Amino acid sequence: MPLLVDVRKLTVINQLIKDGSESVACSLSTLAGVDASVEIKSLSFVDPSDMPAEIGTRTTYSARIRLSEPPTASS
Question: Measured between alpha carbons, how far is residue 29 from residues 7, 22, 34, 43, 74 in Å?
C-alpha cells in the first residue's frame, strides 16, 4: 500500500528538515571547530521495512522524525 502524504503537511515537514539540518551543521561546526554545511538532496517517505531496498549499501546518514499525527491528517 502506498504511503499517502497530505501536500499541506509538506511545508511543515520541509521546515522541520531545514531547521534540523541547520542545527546539525551548527553542532558539527562547534564540535569540529570548522565550518560545516548540510545540503538536503531529497526527501523520501519510505516504510521502514523497505529502507534497505531504497537506500542500497552505500554509506547513508539520515534523520527520523516521529510525528504526533500522520502526515495525511488535515489541520
Answer: 33, 11, 5, 24, 37
